[in-house]
Specification:
alpha/beta; seven-stranded mixed beta sheet; about 450 residues; nine-stranded mixed beta sheet; 12 helices
C-alpha cells in the first residue's frame, strides 16, 4: 500500500522540501512554498540487487533505425517556421502566454486548418463549455473535417477518449485545469501539473499523437508550475504582445525539432489571428519623414531580417539628475552608449534627458542595434534629420569602434527590397562582402565616422 506524506513544493520552480521555508533555496523566491500530500510507494527491492525483471534490452547505436519525422502543416507559415517546418508526430508542445493574448484562438484556428487538410483532431478544454467554444469557433469561420471537442479535466478520461478516437493532434487547454484522481493533491498544484504532463508525454510517445498543452504564466511571464515542466516537453512556445497593439509574436524558447531563434508575427483581427508575411513593412508603416531622432535599423530574428524604427528624444534636463527611459530595448545598454558618445565624441549627454523607443512595440536586444541608437541620439541632440532612405546597423564597443555583425548581406538585401538606398555598416563587414547590388554602402570604423557621414 502507498503511504501518504506531507511535503512542501515551490510554486515557481517545483523545489521539494520536507518542511516549510519562507524562501525557496532553489529559485530564491519568497512565500512560494505550498503544502501538498503525496503518496510514497514502498520499495520493491534494493538498488542493484538484480531482482527486477524486464523485457527491454539495451541496443547498440547501429541497431537504431532512423526515419524522417512526419510533420503536419498548420496552415500558418509563420507558425510552421517557429515549429521547424510543421508539427512533428508524437511531439509534446507547451504554449504559454498572458491571459487574453490569443493562445486558444490560434490553436483553434490550427485545429480548423488541420481538420480541413484531412487530419483527425481533438480539442479538449477544461476552462470553457462546448457552447463557449462554438461561439469562438463561429468567429474564425466554418469548420469542416474530423474535428471533435471535449470538455473534461480528468486526465484518465481524456486518455481513454484519445484511445477511442485515435486523433493525430490533440489540444489540451489548459494543463493547470487537469487532474489525476489517484493523486491526493489539489487541482492545479505542482504535483497534479507535473504528473498530468508526464501522463500526456507518455501517451504522445506511445501513440505518435502530437499534443499541444496550454500553460498559464506567472506575473514574470514564465510558465506557471514546476520548472521541470519545460524540460519534459519537446517544444516551448511563448505567445507575446500587448493588448494595446494588434500584432502578436510567437517565439520558441525550446525546440528539439528546429531552431529556437525563429519568430512568427501575427495580427489580431475580428475573425482571429492573421499571419504577417512582411513584418518589416508592417513595423515601418506610419514612419515620420525628415524627423530628427528617427533611424531605421535592420536586425535578425533567427534567419529572418526585420527592419525597425529607432526613435530618440533628447531634451535639456530640468534637474541635476538626467532621466533615461528605454522602451523596447535594454535600458543599461542605452546608458552605456550615451557614456560612449560623451567620452568619444565630446558631447555633453549628461546634461540632457534621453528617451529611446523601438516603434511598433517590439523588443529587440541584438547588438547590431547599437549604431542605430547612437545615431538616433545624436540626431535628436543636434536636431538634424538623418536620410530617410538610410538603414544603419553595427555593434558599438566602449572605445567607440563599430564592430562586425553576422549575416550583413541578408540585411542589406532586405533593406533594398523595401526601397532603402544607403546602408551604414561596419568596415570589417564591408571588406568581406560580395554584394553586387545597387545599394550604396558606407563603411565606418567608429561612431565619429558614422556621424560625419550622415550629418
Amino acid at each position: 500500500m502507498a503511504k501518504l506524506k506531507t511535503v512542501y513544493f515551490c510554486s515557481e520552480c517545483g523545489y521539494e522540501s520536507s518542511k516549510w521555508m519562507g524562501q525557496c533555496p532553489s529559485c530564491k523566491e519568497w512565500n512560494t512554498m505550498s503544502e501538498e500530500t503525496v503518496a510514497k510507494l514502498k520499495s520493491t527491492g534494493a538498488v542493484g540487487s538484480g531482482t527486477l525483471s524486464t523485457d527491454k534490452e539495451a541496443v547498440h547505436i547501429d541497431e537504431i533505425e532512423l526515419y524522417e519525422e512526419d510533420r503536419y502543416r498548420t496552415g500558418f507559415e509563420e507558425l510552421d517556421r517557429v515549429l521547424g517546418s510543421g508539427i512533428v508526430a508524437g511531439s509534446l508542445v507547451l504554449v504559454g502566454g498572458d491571459p487574453g493574448i490569443g493562445k486558444s484562438t490560434i490553436l483553434l484556428q490550427v485545429c480548423r486548418n488541420l481538420a480541413m487538410s484531412g487530419k483527425s483532431v481533438l480539442y479538449v478544454s477544461g476552462e470553457e463549455s462546448l457552447k463557449q467554444i462554438k461561439l469562438r469557433a463561429l468567429r474564425i469561420g466554418s469548420i469542416e473535417g474530423d474535428l471533435r471537442f471535449l470538455c473534461e479535466t480528468d486526465v484518465n478520461t481524456i486518455v481513454a477518449i484519445i484511445g477511442k478516437y485515435k486523433p493525430q493532434v490533440v489540444i489540451i487547454d489548459s494543463i493547470q485545469t487537469m487532474y489525476i484522481d489517484e493523486l491526493p493533491s489539489a487541482q492545479g498544484s505542482v504535483t497534479q501539473v507535473r504528473e498530468s504532463t508526464l501522463r500526456l508525454m507518455q501517451l504522445a510517445k506511445q501513440s505518435s499523437t502530437a499534443i499541444f498543452i496550454v500553460g498559464h504564466v506567472t506575473k514574470d511571464g514564465q510558465v506557471a508550475g514546476p520548472r521541470t515542466l519545460e524540460h519534459m516537453v519537446d517544444t516551448v512556445l511563448y505567445f507575446e504582445g500587448e493588448r494595446s497593439v494588434s500584432y502578436r509574436i510567437i517565439r520558441a524558447v525550446k525546440n528539439r525539432f528546429g531552431s529556437t531563434n525563429e519568430i512568427g508575427v501575427f495580427e489580431m483581427r475580428s475573425k482571429g489571428l492573421v499571419e504577417v508575411s512582411n513584418p518589416s513593412e508592417y513595423m515601418l508603416s506610419g514612419r515620420p519623414i525628415s524627423a530628427s531622432g528617427s533611424v531605421v535599423s535592420c536586425l535578425l530574428e533567427g534567419s529572418r531580417p526585420l527592419l525597425v524604427e529607432v526613435q530618440a528624444l533628447v531634451t535639456p534636463t530640468n534637474f541635476g539628475m538626467p532621466k533615461r527611459t528605454a522602451v523596447g530595448t535594454d535600458f543599461n545598454r542605452v546608458s552605456l552608449l550615451m557614456a560612449v558618445i560623451e567620452k568619444r565624441c565630446l558631447m555633453q549627454m549628461s546634461k540632457y534627458d534621453a528617451y529611446i523607443n523601438i516603434a511598433g512595440g517590439m523588443r529587440m536586444n541584438e547588438p547590431a542595434l547599437d549604431l542605430a541608437i547612437v545615431l538616433a541620439l545624436v540626431s535628436s541632440l543636434k536636431n538634424k534629420a538623418i536620410d530617410d532612405k538610410a538603414v544603419i546597423f553595427g555593434e558599438v564597443g566602449l572605445s567607440g569602434e563599430v564592430r562586425a555583425v553576422s549575416m550583413s548581406e541578408l540585411r542589406i538585401r532586405e533593406a533594398y527590397k523595401l526601397g532603402f538606398e544607403t546602408c551604414i555598416l561596419p568596415k570589417a563587414v564591408c571588406d568581406k562582402l560580395n554584394y553586387k547590388g545597387n545599394m550604396k554602402l558606407i563603411a565606418v570604423n567608429n561612431i565619429r565616422e558614422a556621424i560625419d557621414a550622415l550629418m
